[in-house]
Write a structure and sequence with these properties.
alpha/beta, binds uracil, EC 2.4.2.3, globular, Rossmann fold, Nucleoside_phosphorylase_d, about 240 residues, binds 1-O-phosphono-alpha-D-ribofuranose
Length: about 240
């Protein structure tokens, strides 16, 4: 038994979609041809099913890198070979707005965890074939505006007495901020599996005002739906290329 996910060893599919929110796991699972819940411990809900004949596991990792890293490690231990994060993000690019999507090529490691795993010079990069498959899948999604680029993974969400470095990374052409991709990309690279991410924008946060954060709007739900469609179709494409 994997102790944090509380699922049997060897029960994880080769293809895995992950997200922060356990409720989103069900939202994704409802798109599958069939599914069953195989575990639900803490914030970690895990279901397994099939999409167009490809076995896929959907799992939640909660908010923030330390908890998510546990999930990524156990998913890999359990059999994952390709992990795609289907998440939300704040835009750091004035041209990428609420309801748009971001495909991550890599992540800035402002996460406070991965420097305890490997020196900071080690890059947090998405797998090229996952990025390419997501982009190809997006060609089949209607009414979508997306950008492929770097994201910032930050552990702080609400600022303290220090400012969050959002303007700084916006000025270095980082496209969006979120809270788990760097750990996913570093751990995937260390363990020799593929990873990528597709993220729905829930606000432009260059001049960050956390009081304006509202991921519960229709425009965000619609973008998450598009991200799910692209991620599932990317899985089918990658499986067909094996
Ligand atoms: O929508 P998810 O996948 O949770 O992703 C984003 O949303 C959470 C913040 O509210 C963080 O987990 C961040 O990375
Ligand atoms: O980390 C996150 C996730 C979504 N939106 C944000 O502004 N930040």
């Amino acid at each position: 038994m994997l102790p944090i996910l509380k699922v049997p060893e060897g029960s994880i599919s080769k293809y895995v979609l992950v997200c922060g929110d356990p409720a989103r796991v069900l939202k994704i699972a409802e798109r599958l041809d069939d599914f069953e819940e195989i575990g639900y411990n803490r914030e970690y809900r895990t279901v397994k099913g099939h999409y167009r004949g490809v076995e896929v596991t959907i799992a939640s990792h909660g908010v923030g890198v330390p908890g998510a890293a546990l999930a990524f490690e156990e998913l890999i231990k359990g059999g994952a070979k390709t992990i795609i994060r289907v998440g939300t993000c704040g835009s750091l690019d004035p041209n990428i707005r609420d309801g748009d999507l971001v495909v991550a090529t890599g992540a800035v490691r402002e996460d406070g965890l991965t420097d305890q795993l490997v020196p900071i010079g080690y890059p947090a990069i998405a797998d090229f074939s996952v990025v390419r498959s997501l982009e190809v899948a997006l060609l089949g999604v209607r009414d979508v505006n997306y950008k492929t680029g770097m994201v910032l993974t930050l552990s702080a969400f609400y600022p303290g007495v220090l400012d969050l470095p959002l303007k700084l990374y916006s000025e270095t052409n980082v496209t969006a901020v979120e809270m788990e991709c760097s750990a996913l990309f570093v751990i995937a690279s260390l363990r020799g599996i593929r990873a990528g991410a597709i993220l729905a924008v829930d606000g432009v946060v260059i001049d960050y005002n956390p009081d304006e954060y509202d991921p519960h709007r229709t425009v965000v739900h619609k973008a998450v739906d598009k991200a799910i469609t692209a991620a599932l179709n990317a899985v089918v494409k990658m499986a067909s290329e094996e």
